[in-house]
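Dear support,

We are seeing what looks like truncated structure output for some complexes. This example has two components. We would appreciate it if you could run it in full and send us the complete token output so we can diff it against ours.
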Amino acid sequence: MLDFSLYVATIAAVYALFALSLNLQVGVTGLLNFGHVAFFGVGAYASGIVALNGGSWVVGVLVGVVAASLLGVAIGALGRTLAADYWAIVTLAVAECLRLIVVNESDVTGGPQGISGIAGPFVGVSGLGGDIAWLLLCVVLAGLAYLIAETLTGMQFGRVLRLIREEPMLAASLGHNITREKMRVLAVAAPIAAVGGSVYTLYISYIGPNQLLPIETFLVFTMLIIGGMGNNRGAVLGALVIQLIYAGSRFLKDIFPIPDQSASSIRLLIVGLVLVAFLMTRPEGLFAEKLRRIDVHQ
Amino acid sequence: MFTSRGVGKSFGPVQVLRDVELDIEPGEIVGLVGPNGSGKTTLLNCLSGFLNPDVGSIEYDGARLDRLADWQVSRLGVRRTFQTAAQPMKMSVLEAMLCGASLPIGSAPVRGLFRRSARAREQAGAVTKALELLDFLSLGHMVEEPAGRLSGGQKKLLSLGVALMTDPEVLLLDEPTAGVNPTLRLTIADRLKDINARGTTLLVIEHDMGFIGRMCGRVYVLDKGSVIASCRPDELKDNPRVVEAYLGAPRPAHLTTGAPRP
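Here is the complete output from our reference environment:
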């Protein structure tokens, strides 16, 4: 039971990285990125492929961060000519293309079987010690990502992003280049998700194309809606709530007569019900976005 | 210093602006009037880079503006306001003001993240300026309020304040007093005069002829996309084309005095 709790907490911290990254895009800037899982995938597969070729996990993480950032800039540049809703559809397509490439380029990616046996940072440490080390690492990373996201949101960079979300014409009239700002936020948000993807892959020492399905993106959207769109604390809390629902649903079959094979469907059903309940009763989420106080006396 | 030559703009088959010639000298307050649909806002959109004209040129201080993007025009010192002064709901009035400032360190995600104290110093300067401007615009008591929750007139004042954060040389104002009560209208007029006295050139779209008369040294009249007059405001009523297109003919005597119908 203890190792299960450690596992749940570790995955929740990894999810927090995804949620914080998506919050910078959707919650702060209003960029509907339906292909967010692509950034996770780039980080995860960078770690997997580097490991497969005998590289250190450090190299894998760095490759993932740089590649995700570049992918972010490229996707952001599409916004120069695409209206926001079309851009959202294109992001979904980009992520699906990435997944299909991963499935078909078996020589590089392991194809549908994925890549297993990926060595992470705590190879020598086994048992409880290793689990605790992983949890600490992921919590520290999530904390760091929170600080970065919160600082970015509060400073002029994030202020302009929030203005772009609410009043894009006003932002343009004040000399802010909207396309450039979108590219920049994707360039900084994507690596946060990529680190999450890398850490996840190293933690469970496996990555496969089924972890790049669009449902993963929408799960992160659910985290933001429950936690509170635009609020970084909400993103972290939303990740925790979803992970608890996921973990808790495993015990439903001890109480109710549920066949094993329906367990994962029931999990999604519960997430869906919680999502609908929030949208109907508390659309602003657990932590609503608040006005930011500006320190007047400095 | 601000000129447009032969500016034309069409939306599909509809020609909205034709051959618009405009000259604005530094320090002027110029009015832009005309009936609804005459192309005033389209012209302002062209001058501010929100639209690029199909033909013609727009120059400001030797720079061609007609092929630049909106944000580039703004950075050259030509800022505009909008007819509906929208302001963000999830920002305080003070934060909305800071959006108008130029804060290079705070705007750079990586540099701003690491240079915390330089960022704070830079912002403190902008906060001081924002508070002064808010006092000047009689919004000093609204600093902590959500910008999007202000009244229509207060939003117009705030839009002015936000635009003034970088001391623009030219302000293009789209109906700065439309839908504003008479007292606040006078306040806005006074503030605009002060802003002009500090050296900002103003181009004002306005329907209130009293306002135009008090404020503007010169006025352009637009009708069906063409400039039909450019004169002092008091000369407008003597111009038959302006009277016909915009001001309307004086009422026949029998309607105003009760004299018998001829």
